[in-house]
Amino acid sequence: xxxxxxxxxxxxxxxxxxxxxxxxxxxxxxxxxxxxxxxxxxxxxxxxxxxxxxxxxxxxxxxxxxxxxxxxxxxxxxxxxxxxxxxxxxxxxxxxxxxxxxxxxxxxxxxxxxxxxxxxxxxxxxxxxxxxxxxxxxxxxxxxxxxxxxxxxxxxxxxxxxxxxxxxxxxxxxxxxxxxxxxxxxxxxxxxxxxxxxxxxxxxxxxxxxxxxxxxxxxxxxxxxxxxxxxxxxxxxxxxxxxxxxxxxxxxxxxxxxxxxxxxxxxxxxxxxxxxxxxxxxxxxxxxxxxxxxxxxxxxxxxxxxxxxxxxxxxxx
Length: 317
Fold this sequence. Notes:
This protein is α/β, with parallel strands linked by helices. It folds into three domains: 10-91, Winged helix-like DNA-binding domain superfamily/Winged helix DNA-binding domain (Arc Repressor Mutant, subunit A); 99-160 and 269-294, D-Maltodextrin-Binding Protein, domain 2 (3-Layer(aba) Sandwich), CATH 3.40.190; 168-267, Periplasmic binding protein-like II (D-Maltodextrin-Binding Protein, domain 2), CATH 3.40.190.10. Helix content is 40%, strand content 20%. The protein has helices at residues 10-22, 25-32, 36-50, 66-91, 105-112, 116-123, 140-143, 203-211, 226-234, 244-253, 275-280, 283-294, and strands at residues 55-57, 62-64, 99-103, 129-133, 147-151, 160-173, 193-197, 219-223, 239-243, 263-274. Strands 4-3-5-10-6-9-7-8 form an eight-stranded mixed beta sheet, with helices on both faces. Helix 1 crosses helix 4 (66-91). The radius of gyration is 26 Å and the shape is globular. The mean pLDDT is 86.
């Protein structure tokens, strides 16, 4: 094979394309789950293979050359075609191929995994169901994902189908013994230790605005992930914002209670898939039907009644 037709390593092409697209080695490394050094070495390897530089380097930035800009566009198109070809091969590999379902981490841990046996039965026991914990935008072809469950809080690509299966309701949740710290009654200011999470930083403010309830926290505790704040509520550390789907099992068992009830926040969970995958097979419809049936009874319980305080007897003059 002549040097002009020899292909460089795919890893080097991916590192190069991502660096040009992001204009940053660090951002390319984060996308590819590599170190900055590994991306830089891969780009250097590609330059060595081609015999010329692809970037103008300084201490502050890497700037692609005009040749590199054109090459990066061609490489991006080739990678997209390769991903599409691999996705088609996966879809036509037969019933023995695993069905890969990506789900937001907290919903996966607190709701889907406890129902995994039922979902596997709906999919069919002869086909392996493989779960992936992830959130945000889904790269179906790049990451080998067949189906994904996400909240409808980001824009979808034109070739992605999304069908809602449950509406989102949110409300304060805590252990019953902690409920007494929240204030005297429904409608009064919410007190107590409030548990926050970095993945939904505005959750408390959103609930307060929707419920028309002021917040008067005695203290705040912050967590990196949403499921951590809910687990802290189970442990009695304070009061968390609980989306109904994520706390339904704990409410049913009595581990948690919802002393102020729930309000709809206008969002929903949805099942997503590439349009071609929906057209080619029935896995999407099978999983969607199961999700809707499993969530059919997932409606917010009525808020607890407002306690009426006895009136003080009037004093006679």
